[in-house]
Amino acid sequence: FVTLPTGMKVKVDGRDNWPSLNFEWGIGHKHKVEAAAEQVDARGRRYRFVSWSNGGPAAQEVTVVEDPVTPNSFRMVATYELLGQLNLTSDPPSIPATVSGVECKTPCTVDRVAGAEVTVTLPPEMALSPDTKVIFDGWADGSQALNRTVTLGAAQMALRAKYRYTHKLRMISDPEGGATWEFAPAPEAGNYFAMGTRVEVTAVAQPGHKFRRWEGALSGPYHVGWVTMN
User: Fold this and answer.
1) Between vectors from CA 222 to CA 176 and to CA 188, what angle results, nearest 5°?
2) Region 89-94: what's the mean pLDDT?
3) Whole-model pTM?
């Protein structure tokens, strides 16, 4: 028995751990042979069964007959094809992406027939905690598309999504309604700032109130302060 490419496993009479796929059998004897539907090589590449040289199914019972071209021999070839492979990663990991509608939480690997098109869809943002979220910041290859369609080939394909970290700045006045806030730079929606941003915060006392002091991430009696979003 031979496989194309070489190195694929074949189950013969219920075993796939024979030291060799060369056997000495009598003419007319019957044996069971089976080629797995898919196999993975040492590099992590996946192969799909295509056919046996005798045209039979992947699992079949064969009768040993003499090859008319090569006397005293019986030969069968199992042909496999290499699937295209997409390796999808992200920073940070565990982004709930989908590939052609199927969840593929990063990092993940997708194998399809070479030439197949797959559509990768990413969430625009993801919460990591009540005060921290990541926002899509493009792909490592420069693309800014949340949804992109790629065609898989024989060579491995890799896509890496980038996300940026943002943190929420929570402002509370005591008593409630005693102040409003001014920020420089201005926050993103939900009062989020990019990680590492140095924010100038100004407390504006409302009528009937006077600024007294900061507590929390800021301290001191002056109504303007600076906080770094880490």
Assistant:
1) 60
2) 96
3) 0.80
